[in-house]
Amino acid sequence: MPFRMAKYGIGDIVRHRFYPFRGVVFDVDPVFANTEEWWLSIPEDVRPAKDQPYYHLLAENAETTYEAYVSEQNLLPDESGEPVSHPDVSSIFSGLKDGKYVLVNAQTN
Predict the structure, then answer these.
(1) Which range of residues forms the domain containing residue 43?
(2) What's the pLDDT score for residue 27?
(3) Residue 24's CATH number
(4) Does the residue 78 lie in any domain?
(5) Considering the domain boundaries, does residue 38 fall inside one?
(6) Which of 1, 7, 28, 86 lies at a 20 to 30 A Cα distance from 52?
(7) CA-CA distances (angstroms) from residue 52 to 60, 102, 103?
(8) Is residue 4 very low, low, confident or very high in pLDDT (cuts 50, 70, 90)?
(9) What is the DSSP string of 3-57?
(10) Is 36 part of any domain?
(11) What is this structure's pTM?
(12) How many angstroms separate the Cα of 77 from the Cα of each of 11, 39, 92?
């Protein structure tokens, strides 16, 4: 499968196109890299293509926080300006800068 450039990067805050959750990207797979069982568990009429970037998110909704694995086609930029309240954010990121989370060990200018 050919690789596409990822639209979002580590530290970007995104929201799901259809479901009410948002999160911060902490890892990116250039193509689908989860189990076949996981992929087949998605209803066929909304099952995303495998040949696109997939994002690991520290996610939150109105009830809880969790990790999510989401295809690029199902993500949009989150424009709320609100921080992500997932408890693991502070172990990966040092804080927000210009609307994007900065990795703990990243050099800042």
Answers:
(1) 13-103
(2) 97
(3) 2.30.30
(4) yes
(5) yes
(6) 86
(7) 23, 24, 24
(8) confident
(9) ----SS-TT-EEEESSSS-EEEEEEEESS--S-HHHHHTS-GGGPPPSSS-EEEE
(10) yes
(11) 0.91
(12) 12, 24, 20
pLDDT digits (tens, 9 = 90+) for 18-74: 999 999 999 999 999 999 999 999 889 889 999 999 999 999 999 999 999 999 999
Q: What tens digit of pLDDT does each residue of 66-101 get?
A: 999 999 999 999 999 999 999 999 999 999 999 999
Nearest partner of 71 among 8, 10, 1, judged by Cα:
8
Q: Which two tokens stand for residue 13?
A: 């805050």
Residue 2 lies in a domain: no
Q: Quick one: pLDDT at residue 46?
A: 86
Total domain count for the chain? 1
